[in-house]
Write a structure and sequence with these properties.
Layout (H helix, E strand, L loop, with lengths): L1 E2 L1 H10 L2 E6 L2 E3 L2 E3 L4 E6 L9 E16 L2 E11 L4 E8 L2 E13 L7 E3 L3 E11 L1 H10 L10 E10 L2
Length: 164
């Protein structure tokens, strides 16, 4: 996912440092989470609503946000493109704070048509990823602020899925 400059700017303003958990990577303004399971069906837009349905799992990886002695880890993402949500687990300083919580809302209306990629892959690009109201409330409480707003654009997702 290409991180939005507004999101990274907000992190800087709040004094939060982004990082990765597990097998995730962060480089050149993009964060990547390996797909560990799931199944997705894609229809031609307009023939079925929603035209992308299924689940995409990212177990064992995630995003961390740190300020001072406090670290929040958002992990084990479960994407439901049909419901336009991303759920996951939340740890605060290593202790469970939420499980299977809606962390991000997804705007699939910005999704580009399905593309094929190298090595038998399918690429879905363009979904907006936004902070959910639950995640905003949890982050505000944890970092003692009111600056994290629901709907804050985190970035634009690219999902690359093996087709074979």
């Amino acid at each position: 996912m290409k991180l939005d400059p507004g999101f990274t700017g907000a992190l800087t303003t709040l004094g939060l440092t982004p990082g990765v958990v597990g097998s995730a990577t962060l480089a050149d303004g993009s964060i990547s989470f390996p797909i560990t399971g799931g199944n997705v069906k894609y229809w031609t837009p307009g023939t079925v609503d929603p035209y992308v349905q299924g689940k995409i799992l990212h177990d064992g990886s995630g995003l961390s946000l740190a300020a001072g002695a406090t670290t929040v880890e958002l992990t084990n993402f479960d994407i439901d493109p049909g419901a336009s949500i991303l759920k996951g687990d939340v740890l605060v300083n290593g202790a469970p704070a939420a499980s299977d919580a809606v962390l991000f809302d997804l705007n699939g209306r910005t999704l580009k048509p399905l593309q094929t990629g190298p090595n038998d892959t399918a690429i879905l690009q363009g979904t907006e990823v936004k902070i959910s109201s639950d995640a905003a409330a949890l982050l505000n409480k944890t970092f003692n602020t009111d600056a994290v707003t629901p709907g804050l654009l985190v970035g634009i997702a690219t999902i690359t899925i093996a087709t074979k």
